[in-house]
Write a structure and sequence with these properties.
mainly beta; 0% helix; single chain; 89 residues; 4-stranded antiparallel β-sheet
Length: 89
């Protein structure tokens, strides 16, 4: 799979890998969710945050539980989603 430039790390929880990526084409932070079993991207949630390249883009690690996945983007934007559906909370 292709990812944006950065130093972020994935979190693996209940057979799913989550990571905060940066999509330069959309100028957006993108929380991505993948099945460990198949490698398939299950969902993606993003928000626009135009950035200049400064020591890469993504550099944070999500926090995940049964009810929530929370990210803090490199510019301090906080996002909370349902870890199964990706629905914004």
């Amino acid at each position: 799979m292709e990812t944006g430039e950065g130093h972020a790390a994935p979190v693996i929880y209940n057979g799913i890998a989550y990571f905060l990526d940066y999509d330069e084409a959309l100028s957006s932070d993108a929380l991505r969710c993948f099945s460990l079993e198949t490698g398939e991207e299950l969902w993606r949630r993003w928000y626009r945050v135009p950035m200049k390249r400064n020591h890469s883009f993504s550099r944070t690690v999500p926090v995940v539980s049964d009810e929530y996945i929370i990210t803090i983007g490199p510019q301090g934007h906080v996002m909370c989603c349902d870890p199964v559906t990706g629905e914004l909370i």
